């Protein structure tokens, strides 16, 4: 059985087919006169290849003078030559800069669509106003058509660029398009001047475009370097902020684990040691004292196992939950069942482990249950954790008061789940007891 295509392969195939369609449409619209003089086609192609190869990459957007040259080709030659010139330049730029195939096909398809749109606009508007390509008034069409094509180009980049994140797509109009509008207006007028000059001397028009490129490329690189520097400074500031937030979260997590450990020691071994001291004063037999000591040692070992990361990984999900609740006095009366279809060790290393531990321990300590059922499964690529008990249920008002008093176990669980992009629902069951449902993104729950 053949292997299915991955997403990038499907994109390449789809855009290649669309590119072939564009070429076919342009061929149907083409006339022999559009390709004359042939040297003008070659000269404009050479200038556009130069413009694309020296493009400036800034803020995830490729900024070049290619559209200026291609618009000039649309106005002077027509749809098919402009499409051929644009595709050839995009292919040469992709090879020179070693661009990925998915991005290369996207770029070639974009310039093909621009050629179809712009070529037809020049054709239709020229016929509407009765203008030939040699008329001086024909050059007036260049500026509005160029600006429209620039906006279409941005829309296609945002929609078709295979490597942009949603945030980058959202930021392109604000961070890249608006600051570049004055420069794009200048390019539009340069293209209009080239078209006007071509009515007198096509060679002079091409030479003028080449000179403009040679003059503006250094200036453009300086602008691009400045933009990149600003972006890097912003990224550094963002990373520093994220680092500070991460440090605070780590410290808070450590404080929570220490508090949890202290509660476990207080409610388990400490209570037994105090009872043992009382038994010594009451003259309890050595055999009974030894039994109390054995239970205290066992509880202490259980606490160590429940909190030590290496022990959690070695024990797995279910055993870690049992070790976490074993030190508490009410645990002996609780029947804990764990049903999971997810890999045990993956769960033990995921966010599901500390969340389940906190919810189960909270039920043992405060709900006085006789049964606790824990289920874990995957649904539509998400991890679903459900915990039900037959205890006294949960009072929302009392829970809020507990948080205000400093008992923030459930509040911190909710925050950790929501910070990870998940959901947490806790409610009293109709028949009594508490039902908690946690949904975590991805199978790892991270």
SSE layout and pairing:
Layout: H1 7-29, H2 38-53, E1 56-58, E2 61-63, H3 66-76, H4 79-96, H5 101-129, H6 142-160, H7 166-198, H8 202-281, H9 286-307, H10 309-315, H11 317-325, E3 335-340, H12 344-348, H13 352-366, E4 371-379, E5 382-389, H14 396-404, H15 409-419, E6 423-428, E7 434-441
Parallel strand pairs: 3-4
Antiparallel strand pairs: 1-2, 4-5, 5-7, 6-7
Structure write-up:
The protein has 446 residues and is an alpha+beta fold. The chain has 2 domains: 7-243, no CATH class; 328-446, Histidine kinase-like ATPase, C-terminal domain (Heat Shock Protein 90, 2-Layer Sandwich), CATH 3.30.565.10. Helix content is 69%, strand content 10%. The protein has helices at residues 7-29, 38-53, 66-76, 79-96, 101-129, 142-160, 166-198, 202-281, 286-307, 309-315, 317-325, 344-348, 352-366, 396-404, 409-419; strands at 56-58, 61-63, 335-340, 371-379, 382-389, 423-428, 434-441. The strands form 2 sheets. Strands 3-4-5-7-6 form a 5-stranded mixed beta sheet, with helices on one face. A two-stranded antiparallel sheet has the order 1-2. Strand 4 (371-379) and strand 5 (382-389) form a beta hairpin. The longest helix is centred in the middle third of the chain and has 80 residues, at 202-281. The chain is rod-shaped.
